[in-house]
Predict the 3D structure of the following.
Amino acid sequence: MAVEWWKSSVVYQVYPLSFKDSNNDGIGDLQGIIEKLPYLANLGIDVIWLNPIFESPLVDNGYDISDYEKILPQYGTMADFQELLNKAHEFNIKIILDLVVNHTSDLHHWFIESKKDRKNDYADYYIWKDPKPDGSAPNNWGSTFGGPAWEYVESRNQYYLHCFAKEQPDLNWESETVRQEIYQMMRKWFELGIDGFRMDVISLISKDPAYPDASQTLAYTKSYYAGASNGPRVHEFLQEMNHEVLSDFDVMTVGETPNTNSTQAQLYTFPERKELDMVFHFDHMHLDYGKYGKFSDIRFKLSDLKKVLTEWQNKLANGWNSLYWSNHDQPRAVTRFGDDGVYRETSAKMLATLLHMMKGTPFIFQGEEIGMKNVPFTEIEEYQDIETKYFYQEMLAAGESEEYIKQSVYLKSRDNARTPMPWNGESDSGFSKAKPWIDYSPDNQTINVQKALQDENSIFYYYKKLIALRKAYPIIQLGEYQLINEEDSAVYSYLRKYQGETLLVLCSFSPDTVNVEIPKDLVEKNGEKLIGNYPEKIETLSKTMPLRPYEAVVFLLK
Ligand code: NOJ
């Protein structure tokens, strides 16, 4: 049987606000993405995932949608989108969109009607609850961007639920009408020709009807997990969605699933269950969490990373994994997991090797392919993100030192991923002639696309090679994963096995030269080196092999 196309694909995530501004208003747009299609085709990616491009007041950069069937005017028109889709398809690039259906914007006409009174046609489109006898909120849940998860509306004398900002009311999936509205809207996009959806916080769509209070042990901003994640009907809803829409089209789906462990993920992804193709889990994103959740100055431990990634490789062996280091909600990979100083290029290539040789669909976040690092903003005012602003105030109110706050914001703010794409080293980064909606990174002068394309040893060309290898070697797509040297505290080594062949992947996380042990039976095999991140190459395997700082090397053994 032919392998599903999304299993041999590499996805590139475009954050439209910051990719390329074609009309010089300081905001990226669809024509800008069209202009850069040849760049993406050169890299060799198969699929573009676009963050939300729909009409929105942009309280949460488009994750607050006011009309699912209109394009945000700042991004262009429906004709621009159709052109993007057609041109991408001409390059053999597929496009997946962001499906944000746990919530809408409070400016969506459904909500504007819903909040008027308890009897209108949209009255039960959202989650409305009566106040407690003392007038307070129905339970103690907090919301992701701060404050309670319930907002009172006088015209109904009720509270509505919002797991995110109060401008992002949660939809009521218990309503059959709401579900049908969503399926119809999805169908329209598929009929237009899109190739799939990334589904925003899809593990939150079914709520525990008891709406239980959360225990104090959960962080306040995530306390809604107590009754709003992996709820009783989530799998029923997704099976229904699959049956009613997805199964009619040859598309890919990736669900973003907060608060979901690898056992729960099996339920979302095992093919016989007919729900989703893969999910984004958060376990490796949580390895450096501290008392304020993500906003900490803690560094991950390699032993934890091995444990988590291995667990997901194994548990989803019969499903499928998504593979990612970063996205628009996360800091830059090379700063977080590599070394963004002297070894920036070497460690960025090492991280790419580790991820791209695994089993699953790799996702590259824009700028990762040129090794962009966290943005060294010096003033808090330069940050634009709603989450960063909230946690800044929270840490300030808790009496944390200015230094701690700055450092944890520098290390974890979502804005690290959101500064404009540096197309060249000029003062406007080749992004826009107008002032950009968020400041450029001062690093753009040295880290930019033009420079990367001129250097045959750049991170860009290394990614290009990794992508090409995945296409050329079925073992990279399908081989079984096996961790080796589990106790090694500096090197992440693993095997992939397929039809009698073995792929050996060695990735050093050390800034020093370290020795790695190679199992005897592998040393004796006939090995061909597929890729490595040092110009002076290692060509053969030995029992004890020295690896240079952040060295990565991959052998195919027959
Ligand atoms: C996850 C998205 O990736 C994030 O950017 C957004 O703020 C929340 N979901 C709410 O939609």
About this structure: The mean pLDDT is 97. The chain has 17 helices and 20 strands. The first helix runs from residue 30 to 35. The two ends are 25 Å apart (CA to CA).
